[in-house]
Batch of 3 targets.
Target 1
Amino acid sequence: MQAAPMRIIFCAATDPQPWLEALRQEFPQAQLAVWHSGAPPADYAVVWAPPQQFFDEQTQLKAVFNMGAGVDALLKRDIAPQLPLVRLSDAGMGVQMAEYVCHALIRHTRQFDVFEAQARTGQWHEPVPLERAHYPVGILGLGVLGERVASAVAALDFPVLGWSRSPKQVAGVRSLCGMDQLPAFLAQTRVLVNLLPLTPETENILNRSTLSQLQAGAYLINVARGRHVVEEDVLALLDSGQLAGATLDVFRTEPLPPAHPFWRHPRVTVTPHIAGRTMLPETIAQIAGKVRALEAGLPIEGLVDRSRGY
Ligand code: NAP
């Protein structure tokens, strides 16, 4: 008897057609569908922020593939405890994050915004040369993306520290870990990059108390989640001079509301959650590889540990 074809369902608020076509290339025999209430059961799901009804109805899933690295939206749902959830591991996001962070870091430390303003009024002022030793870069989260960013920053000869839950060995990066070492990490950091997952432990971690422990005139680059940051505290610390500026890609409310003070703050750069975009070819290639491994009974990487929240 022939085996039943594999069934894959897609559920995300984006045009499904390119995703289904890419899945069709990988699995020509599979039954592919876009989820709607009452859709037939599937074996595998490719999702971004699916509604609760999706999980209530799709009870035969063997695994769920999240179309991003962060699973905070997914974990808000009530999901059968044994159902494997798989996050994206890099899948083309690491290089984008490295570009974004290096750009923000270089723009700040080499004063490109100052030169842009000067150029508009025809001014020629040479600054003192940059001393990298005065700009230690601390990276919160040394996971898949944090490690890639840390290595890129270290390659630019900045001193680099990383903070994670467990100790790491990354060339050119001083690893600190756990709550006990957070004060030491902050005290040695001038440019703070946030690449933590959003969990109950990390929500609001960037607040008046922690940001005040950074070196004076610190710079914040947040590319993780808006809910890591107490936004009023950032504004107050910008006004007091404790923070020299910030480049922010993510916000508590997205899109950032038109009246939000970040839009008009002269030392804040706002980008619309684009630091690490989900790339279709890399994402489907990664998911397809993992579906094949699961079908063959092999272990896969990128399984979400629900007790940790990432
Ligand atoms: P990851 O591989 O899971 O890495 C997470 C890192 O954070 C790990 O090093 C982990 O430590 C550390 N960590 C977690 N909880 C901690 C805690 N309580 N204390 C100390 N360290 C803790 O995640 P990733 O793939 O690098 O992605 C990171 C985040 O980036 C995502 O969760 C998402 O929110 C964000 N993101 C944003 C965009 C964007 O466009 N802005 C795009 C993609 C991702 P251990 O290694 O010791 O476990």
Target 2
Amino acid sequence: MRLVVTKMNLGLWAAAYVKEKINAAAPSPEKPFVLGLPTGGTVVDMYANLRLFHKEGLLSFKNIITFNMDEYVGLPQDHPQSYHSYMRQNLFNEVDIRPENIHILNGQAADLNKECADYEAAIAQAGGIDLFLGGVGRNGHIAFNEPGSAFNTRTRPVELTPSTMEANSRFFLNDLRRVPHQALSVGIGTVTDAKEVLFLASGAKKAEAVARLFEPGKDLNWPITALKLHPHATLLADPEACSLLDAAAKAKLDARMQAEPDAEHWTLEIEEA
Ligand code: GLP
């Protein structure tokens, strides 16, 4: 795994990376590109830049299949804070994706376990995920895999922790009672099965989660550390999200930044264990 630190807008960096990956793969109806997609505040700029690339004719979604990470249980799909609504607003309404290629978990399904099993089957049917994009919770959660989730978990119903509900209450008029306490989420194993993984962490609130990546081994209490076991995983972070790195990692990063002050980004390798 590697940490990529940039002073650029993370969304622009990530969208440019995604565009290059997709265009290099030259997806076709026979060989579509399969993207895992996140929601949340961090990735809003990434979607804005993806929309822009599409508008400029630099990126087409025609041969792209998408699987979103998660959805709240119980929110109608047209609720303004459902991840269905988020995806329509931030991406799908403005690009040339085929509706049948969009997959988002249905948090109102009558049988939630079946919904999750069907989702895993649909991912397998699509040939697996080529690039899984994601954000990071303040407590290190990925998708809605809260601390303590096993690293081999698959798509399933999950309970949100009070800390995540509190963090997400800003999208629900700051009223904790309005925040759903359950979600459907891809598992950590579903994410790490992807051929490549790119996660984004922005701001000081994510600094503890980023710092955990440099502690030896993996830590079930910090789901983000599961990415250390992936051969092709990147965490893209801004300097604020790197403010709690341990002294050795910080010294390495400072040295890279001083050696190449004008670089677009700086990279640190993260040991697997
Ligand atoms: C939610 C999502 C996560 C996301 C996290 C961080 O909990 N389920 O996938 O990573 O929010 O959100 P933000 O980017 O708003 O900090």
Target 3
Amino acid sequence: MIKKKIEEAFNKQINEEIFSFYLYLSMAAWFDSINLKGFAHWMKIQAQEEMFHAMKFYNHILERGGNVGLAEIAGPKTKWESLLNVYEESLAHEGHITGCINDLMDLVIEEKDHAARSLLQWFVDEQVEEEANFSEMVDKLKMVGNHNPLLLMQDKEMGQRQPGPNPFFKTGAEQ
Ligand code: OFO
């Protein structure tokens, strides 16, 4: 049985993960609006991963006899100054999520909840990958700068990203 304190903290994290889904979907919509279809595809897959993260907490709470309580999701931004700005903000957002996961890990260690600790270890490792992916994109976009042919090549490469094993929706790029 999951402790109330941990159930509450995990429900809060579901909200963080679904906000991440919302934020990346909003970024994908912005890319679609400026016809950068490869970047839009990449962000839709990122959004899909976030819903997968939310569902990992959802399943864990329910499997351990707890209750899922979904709260209101804040509205994300809808416009950005540049591609670089999108990825810099995403990297900062992932830093925030890493902080949330670390706080959750501290809590479950304090509460001696070994099952929750095992779940969170997956997220600790995942956050290393999340931050590395966005950091790589920030570096690449700095190199590309305002060089449109390079940007279009990068857009093509972004369109190659493969969805994870648990797709919640189709991105459209696979048709
Ligand atoms: Fe769920 O890792 Fe990104 O936000």
